[in-house]
Specification:
Layout: E1 8-11, E2 18-21, H1 33-48, H2 62-93, H3 97-106, H4 114-126, H5 132-148
Antiparallel strand pairs: 1-2
GO molecular function: adenyl-nucleotide exchange factor activity
Keywords: Endoplasmic reticulum, Protein transport, Transport
Protein name: SIL1 factor
Length: about 150
């Protein structure tokens, strides 16, 4: 969406929305187009850390758009590299659950996920062979697992 030049534009990190704020001059009226142009670079520097981008859709040149697109691609590549390095670091620290299950089976230890335990508890609760005390205990255990979710 095109916004008037000189507007404050920011990304709200809580909601992920882009926000624009129209500025008013000291006399309460909006600035003229030329005044907004003069303020544009100062405001862009303030909000964007030195990145000066003209938000007036009439004043974008193809070169400006190409430069902005190139910067976006560069930053995206850098983000991917950082993300891949982080994922590799996590893979080195942790093992997949399938591998852990195999190792526990070799040790004669049955490892169950919360889901598997919850399915058993629901089965015990629905079973007609279960006593009232077993059903109450199953409900208490289910409450614990559901609370974690």
């Amino acid at each position: 969406q095109a916004v008037p030049a000189g507007s404050h534009v920011r990304l709200n990190l809580q909601t992920g929305d882009r926000e624009a704020k129209l500025l008013e001059s000291e006399n309460g009226k909006g600035d003229t187009r030329e005044e907004r142009r003069r303020k544009r670079y100062r405001d862009a520097k303030h909000w964007g850390g030195g990145l000066s981008v003209d938000v007036d859709s009439d004043s974008f040149t193809s070169q400006e758009l190409k430069k902005a697109l190139a910067k976006m691609k560069e930053s995206e590549k850098a983000e991917r590299k950082v993300r891949a390095a982080h994922e590799e670091e996590v893979r080195k620290k942790f093992r997949p659950i399938e591998q852990l299950k195999e190792e526990f089976e070799k040790l004669n230890v049955k490892m169950e996920t919360d889901y598997e335990i919850m399915v058993k508890l629901i089965g015990k609760f629905n079973s007609s062979a279960s006593t009232l005390d077993e059903k109450v205990a199953a409900l208490y255990d289910l409450e614990y697992y559901v609370h974690q979710v």
